[in-house]
Amino acid sequence: MKREASTYDAEAGNALERTLLAKWRASLSDSDILTDTLVSQHDVLDLYPREWGMRAPRVYHAECRQLVEYPDAWCRTVADERLVVNAKCTRDYKAEVSPVAWIQMQAELAVTRADAGLVVYGQKWIADYISGPPEERGPIDVFRIDPDARAQAAIVQVVREAWQRVSVLREMEAEQTKGAEAA
Question: Hey, how many other C-beta atoms are within 10 angstroms of the C-beta on 101?
Fold first, then answer.
């Protein structure tokens, strides 16, 4: 059975992610978990005029500049841990972090060198966003992800190998263009 194209777009996704982070932050207001205010990339982008076309703050890996991350948010705990936060709005309920979200968080941890990561799931938020009012959205669940040095090294290696292949393809394209111009 062929899956229908989604009516969900990037701008709507960013708005929904922003709402998720704001709602989660509000739920922490009486908490002693965080010492710094949770900073969202959306809050940072609001500081610039929209016509400037500013993108989310990007962070490069210290040893592999091709590995770039755009953290959704970041904060510090009372134990002085630096945390990177990844907001995810789901179509269905997630009882644990998906493998894709875990890999993405390992890449973010490798780049930011944060002490840990938090995946904040807005459970069933996408389906509810499309078909129902905001007050009917599912719960917000938070999962802590600790750094995995082996996974991070593998991610860096894959990125390096991929960019080596891109370089070869670019050289081939340049040679083909020269040949076509000479003819």
Answer: 19
